[in-house]
Every structure is written in structure tokens, then in C-alpha cells.
Specification:
The chain is mainly β and about 600 residues long. The chain has five helices and 40 strands. The strands form 14 sheets. Strands 3, 4, 5, 6, 7, 8, 9 and 10 form an eight-stranded mixed sheet that branches. Strands 13-12-15-16-17 form a five-stranded antiparallel sheet, covered by helices on one side.
Length: about 600
């Protein structure tokens, strides 16, 4: 018989829904957690607040096994015979994505995270692809076909959408599922006679049909029927590390009238009756009776495989306890029954890079290094410049863990990876005073006809060959066109001490004998310095081609002859008549055209 307090709690947990009375929550406990399913049109934040007030969170569904526990709780919530509409109902679960966090299709949870925290999990059961939105908070619910009972074998699908707000929970939201975690569970109490047991959990749920009772729950036992009755309270306690049991011993509600005939006397295995109507519990061979005088356990505590995963069970002395041991590279978790991997890389065992693996680790060398032998930290530099496939086009210099490329004079490093060499066009800087010839990796300068390169290899001076031609006889000189030529230097040397200040190593290249693939760049006009010959001065001119013409050479001859005539006049005796300017008479035969004029028909 329940107390008035228990009756009040039951009344608070019942309310009408869909036109019929129904329990507002259902409870399923398994492992170390309990799941409660609730009716209620609440937003996701309101549902989370309801769960957290009792010490829990909206339920996680990290594994298929956990999904099955939640499915059982929802099946209890949908009582048989309830008039339900043919429609889909949704129940909030504890999977959400905060505002500003975008969808990640590559992950099982699509960028969502569990309300209670924890890492990303592999299990998922999406109804359809989640919406790619980052501007609002999104929440996930479990979809149920409320017209079906019991639930089909197909586990509830996940549906994401807006999280709702007070008064507007969202489309088809009918309730929510909470999860409460515990350090351990007690087995349900077994009665040896007529009676009833009601369990009140720490999260204020009341049930009489729990398969596992969470730690710190209270059991209200009402023995007997009719007027002969008694009421008892028991607490689920932790009697030893990892051992949870009730604060009672012996069968409950025993009756000489029934003996072992009622529920096996409340015994787990064997029930033995005495001659006076009494009875006791016993165990089969290989098992022993525990302190509660009801439950049996194996004499080998490891027979029930209490250790999980890769843990190995080792029996203790007298077979009363056991210890779980982990293989190398693992350690016991908080339950002391399972093993977790040890991250050996935390101790930095490698000289360069450490990669943790399940139960171990391995060392790796950085890029530019290679393993020099077995063992930890054995890495040596790779000489990339000595490999068969040389990375650089020209020069290669090895460094510790890397290398860099260099180029010969006249080339510059190029390419996206800096391994190629590109010719530098030195003529872009106009180093030459006249003409510049760019070549692969170098350049050289050239001069106009009648000039040769100075010892510096850049400027031009009047050459001896040109002087001889200019001073030659004019009688019988051909007036036809002359072939153009550029004076270029293949080599450069110091002056020879010639009194005229010319270099005798200049090379005259007729018909513009240029190197293959050479580009010719005319230098901008520069004022040439006078040569060491005292009466000769070559005025600068603008040239627009790579070769000269006979017209340009005629101009040079004209300047030279006029200045030569002037020097001869200076040698004659001076008289008063020389103080005047005389206009020379023009010959009739040359009045029509001056051969030395820049423009036919015009004098200089």
C-alpha cells in the first residue's frame, strides 16, 4: 500500500493528453543510465531546463544500443488503446548546433554536438540531410509514427529544425526524452510473498517495473494483502567499490502459508523449505550465496565477465572479488572495468614527431629527414641535392631539413617552387653607351661603324680603322650606298698604350654579325667624350635600328673633313683679311645637290 506522499507524486505525474488520460513520463534504466520519455509541447530550451532541474540532460543517442533503450521508453509512453491521430510526432533529444556554427557534411553528427558534452560519435540516424544554415540555432528531435503501436523495429529517425520558443515549440513537437547517468545500479527487489514494490528514483520518477534501479533510489515495499500488511523502505547503497545493493537481507514479505511456492520464496536460484513452514535460499554448485541471503554469485567472480573491452579479469583471494587488468599501452577507466588507450606521446618519446596508436605509438621524421635506423629519435637529414632527381635547375645547397636553389651569374631564381633559373636581360638597364646584345646568362655591348668599345666594355671610342678611312683620298670615292655595320666587341681588355688612346682588340663585325638568339637594344643617346686625338669630336646622334647606313657614314666624313680644313687654315699666316667671314663661292656643278648634305639640295 502506497503512502500519501507516493500517491501525491503519482497524481502529479498523470495528466490528460489527446482526449485520454495518460502517464506523462515513462522510465527505462539499463547499464549506468536511465531514460525518461515525457509528453509536453515545450521548446528545446524549455525541455532541457526540465531535464536539468532533476540532474539530467536531453537524451544522447551515441550508440544503437542507447537508441533501443530510448525506443523502449517511448513505447511505454504510448499506452495501448490510446486514441492517437495518424500523424508524426517529434520528441526533443540532446543534439544541437549553436548559432554561427555551420553544417559539416563530412561528420556523422553534421557539426551538431551533444548537450551534455562529449566527443563526436559515429552513430547517427538522420531522416534527411540537415539544412545548411549558420545564422540560427538548430535542434534535433526523434520522429515517431504515433499511429503505430508497438513501435516498429526501425529505430526513431533524427530530424533537425528550429529550436522553438516559449508558446511555439515547433512543428509536430509532442514531448522530449531525458537521460540521467549514475555510478551504479541495484537489482530489483524480489518478494517471497504477497506484496508490492514502488521505486522512487533520484530524478523523482516513480515506477514498479524497473529492470535496474539507480544508485540512491528508495524502494517502498508493502507486504501482505487485506488487513495483514506491513510497509518497509530500503535504500540502494554502494557497499563496496563498484558493488551496489539494498540495505536489507533475506527474502521480503515471506509467508509460511506460501513458503517456496510464491515467487520461489524470493530466492534467485534454489529455495529450501523447513518443516515448520520456514524456508531459505541456496545456490547451485559453483555459486555462493551473497550477504543478502537471496542472491547467488559465482565462486569465480570472473565467470560473469565483469571486465569489458580488452580488460582481463583476475579473481581475488577466496573468490570474493576480482581485478581488471589492461594490456600494455592501456589503463583502467573510471569504472575500473574497462580500458582506455594511453597517449604515450604526452611524454615526448620521439626526437621529432610522435603519432599515438591504440595501445602504442610510432615515431615519424619531419619533412626533409629520414629514419636512420631502428629505435626512437633516429632521424637524419636528407641531402636533397644528392638525390637522383635533382630539384634545382642549376645550383643546389643542402640545409638542415631542407635545401635552396641558386643560379649562375646572369640568371635569377624563378618558378613557383623557386627551383628554376631565368635569364636576366641586362640590356633593360642600358649598361651600354650604344648597342646592347643580351645573351643567355650574359650580354655584350656594340658600337656604330667607326667606333670601337673602350677598355671598360661599355662605352665607345673612335677606332683607328675609322680614322684611316676618314683621312683617305676623296678622289674617285663611290657615292653609292654602303653596307651598314655595327662594331661589337667579343672580348674586353685593358688599353694597349697606343698614343691615340684606342684599344687594338676591338672586333669589327660587318653585316651585323650578332650572336644567335641575341636581342639588340639601342642605348639612349649619351654625350661621348672626346678621344685622345686632339682635333676629333664625334657628336651624339639618335639611332633607331640595329645597323647603320651609308648616309650616317657620310655625315661622319663631312664633319671630319670640315674640321681638317679648318686646322690647315689655322696653319697659314694670318692677315687682317682673316678677321672677316667669307662666304665661299658655290660651284655650279654642285649647286643642285650637295653629296654631303643630310638632305639633298640643302647645305650643312
Amino acid at each position: 500500500m502506497a503512502t500519501s506522499t507516493s500517491l501525491l507524486l503519482l497524481l502529479l505525474l498523470i495528466q490528460p493528453w489527446a482526449g485520454a488520460s495518460a502517464e506523462t513520463q515513462a522510465v527505462v534504466c539499463a547499464g549506468t543510465a536511465c531514460y525518461t520519455a515525457h509528453w509536453g509541447k515545450l521548446s528545446a530550451p524549455e525541455a532541457q531546463l526540465h531535464c536539468s532541474k532533476n540532474g539530467g540532460n536531453l537524451a544522447t543517442v551515441r550508440t544503437e544500443e542507447e537508441a533501443q533503450h530510448i525506443q523502449r521508453a517511448l513505447a511505454q509512453l504510448l499506452e495501448p488503446g490510446m486514441p492517437l491521430a495518424t500523424r508524426v510526432g517529434k520528441f526533443w533529444m540532446g543534439l544541437q548546433r549553436e548559432k554561427g556554427k555551420c553544417l559539416d557534411p563530412s561528420l556523422p553528427l553534421k557539426g551538431f554536438s551533444w548537450v551534455g558534452g562529449g566527443e563526436d560519435t559515429l552513430y547517427s540516424n538522420w531522416h534527411k540531410e540537415a539544412r545548411s544554415s549558420c545564422i540560427s540555432r538548430r535542434c534535433v528531435s526523434l520522429m515517431l509514427d504515433l499511429s503505430l503501436f508497438p513501435l516498429t523495429n526501425r529505430l526513431p529517425k533524427w530530424s533537425e529544425g528550429p529550436c522553438g520558443s516559449p508558446g511555439s515549440p515547433g512543428s509536430n513537437i509532442e514531448g522530449f526524452v531525458c537521460k540521467f547517468s549514475f555510478k551504479g545500479m541495484c537489482r530489483p527487489l524480489a518478494l517471497g510473498g504477497p506484496g508490492q514494490v514502488n521505486y522512487t528514483t533520484p530524478f523523482q520518477a516513480t515506477s514498479s517495473s524497473l529492470e535496474a534501479v539507480p544508485f540512491a533510489s528508495v524502494a517502498n515495499v508493502a507486504c501482505g494483502d487485506g488487513e495483514k500488511s506491513g510497509q518497509y523502505f530500503f535504500l540502494c547503497k554502494e557497499k563496496a567499490i563498484g558493488v551496489f545493493d539494498w540495505s536489507s537481507s533475506g527474502p521480503l514479505c515471506i509467508s509460511p502459508e506460501y513458503g517456496c511456492n510464491f515467487n520461489n520464496g524470493g530466492c534467485q536460484q534454489d529455495c529450501f523449505e523447513g518443516g515448520d513452514g520456514s524456508f531459505r535460499c541456496g545456490c547451485r554448485p559453483g555459486f555462493r550465496l551473497l550477504d543478502d541471503l537471496v542472491t547467488c554469485t559465482s565462486r569465480n567472480p570472473c565467470s560473469s565477465s565483469p571486465c569489458r573491452g580488452v580488460a582481463t579479469c583476475v579473481p581475488g583471494p577466496l573468490g570474493k572479488n576480482y581485478t581488471c587488468l589492461c594490456p600494455q599501452g592501456y589503463q583502467l577507466d573510471s569504472t575500473q572495468q574497462d580500458c582506455v588507450d594511453v597517449d604515450e606521446c604526452q611524454d615526448s618519446p620521439c626526437a621529432q614527431e610522435c603519432v599515438n596508436t591504440p595501445g602504442g605509438f610510432r615515431c615519424q621524421c619531419w619533412v626533409g629527414y629520414e629514419a636512420s635506423g631502428p629505435g626512437e629519435g633516429a632521424c637524419r637529414d636528407v641531402d636533397e641535392c644528392e638525390t637522383g632527381d635533382a630539384p634545382c635547375a642549376q645550383g643546389c645547397t643542402n640545409t638542415d631539413g631542407s635545401f635552396y636553389c641558386s643560379c649562375k651569374d646572369g640568371y635569377a631564381v624563378s618558378g613557383e617552387d623557386g627551383t628554376q633559373c631565368q635569364d636576366v636581360d641586362e640590356c633593360e638597364g642600358s649598361l651600354c653607351h650604344s648597342f646592347c646584345f643580351n645573351t643567355q646568362g650574359s650580354f655584350h655591348c656594340g658600337c656604330l661603324p667607326g667606333w670601337e668599345l673602350a677598355p671598360d666594355g661599355l662605352s665607345c671610342v673612335v677606332g683607328p680603322t675609322s680614322l684611316g678611312q676618314l683621312a683617305g683620298p676623296l678622289q674617285g670615292e663611290s657615292t653609292g650606298p654602303r653596307e651598314g655595320r655595327i662594331v661589337s666587341s667579343a672580348t674586353m681588355s685593358s688599353p694597349t698604350g697606343d698614343p691615340k688612346g684606342t684599344s687594338k682588340v676591338a672586333l669589327t663585325m660587318r653585316k651585323s654579325s650578332l650572336p644567335p638568339n641575341a636581342s639588340v637594344t639601342p642605348a639612349p643617346p649619351k654625350t661621348l667624350t672626346p678621344s685622345r686625338s686632339p682635333g676629333i669630336w664625334i657628336e651624339p646622334s639618335n639611332y633607331h635600328s640595329t645597323t647603320t647606313t651609308s648616309h650616317e657614314e657620310s655625315t661622319g666624313l663631312l664633319v671630319y673633313r670640315k674640321r681638317r680644313a679648318k686646322r690647315e687654315e689655322e696653319k697659314k699666316p694670318q692677315s687682317a683679311a682673316h678677321s672677316y667671314s667669307w662666304v665661299p663661292e658655290r660651284a655650279e656643278g654642285r649647286a643642285m645637290e650637295n653629296h654631303y648634305s643630310l638632305t639633298p639640295g640643302m647645305d650643312c
